[in-house]
Amino acid sequence: MTEAKAQQHGSDDWSERQIAYYRDRAGEYDDTYSDRMSMPRLAKALDALPVSGDVLELACGTGQWTKLLLPRARSLTALDAAPEMLRRARDRMRGTATRFIEADIFEWEPDRRYDTVFFAFWLSHVPPIEMEPFWDLLRRALAPGCRVVFLDDSSAKVEIEERVDEAPVPTVRRTLSDGSRHVAVKVLRDPADLTSQLDGLGWDAHVETIDAFHLSGVARPREGA
Questions:
Q1: Chain-centre distance for alpha carbon 43
Q2: Whole-angstrom Cα distance, residue 35 to residue 220?
Q3: Which residues does 129 contact at the CB level (< 8 Å), separation at least 6?
Q4: d(Cα 50, Cα 121) in Å, to the nearest integer?
Q5: ∠ at Cα 196 (190, 197), nearest 5°?
Q6: Among 78, 141, 182, 210, which is 20 to 30 Å from 114 by CA?
Q7: Measured over all CA atoms, what is the biggest interatomic distance in the chain, rounded to whole angstroms?
Q8: How far, in Å, CA of 149 to CA of 119, rounded?
Q9: How many Å apart are CA 91 and CA 161, to the nearest integer?
Q10: 99 and 75 in contact (C-beta within 8 Å)?
């Protein structure tokens, strides 16, 4: 659903509109990685992060990160809300034992526990009102003593985003190659603020910059928090 269609139908559901954007973007999503993403640097950063065991990837998109997680995982589960994204991810992971789940993360409940929960460029799509429920979900998805690992944009990217000032949650406009206009949640956090926020939610987190525009993090739930 484009921004214009969403307004026409009176929809102010930010999650539904965000999913609609990624459904429509699936056909050109990989262009982001070939044109703009610093994949060699980010892949090297991923190599240094503690990914192992039974791995759950949230917001897997077309499987760009899924393929990098596979050699380090005992088992691999990948989740996304957009069926168009998942079709491409399944094609990319054809011949592997990767388990795919189609679900809205904000409505999903894990059916098992994992050693590593990983997401790349997803946390910035979680609005402030959903941070506590989202990290509660991650706690339920983790096996005891295990960790969340993530990569994301840093606050330096605020200059290239087109903000929607009147939106109920932090939102940006995005335009696809066909000219259609969409909206998505975008919350750019710096390492210190994010570490402090996760501390308040009961997580021991280490968040650091990778380069001028990206950050990485590892977080473990505190016992009794």
A1: 16
A2: 34
A3: 169
A4: 17
A5: 85
A6: 210
A7: 50
A8: 7
A9: 31
A10: yes
Beta carbons within 10 angstroms of residue 188's beta carbon: 20
CA atoms within 13 A on the CB side of 44: 6
User: What is the token pair recorded at 197?
Assistant: 């926020």
The rounded distance, in Å, linking the Cα atoms of 22 and 183 is 10
Instruction: Give the Cα separation of 81 and 4 in Å (integer).
Output: 21
Residue type at position 128: P
CA distance 29 to 87: 13
Residues in the chain, overall count: 225
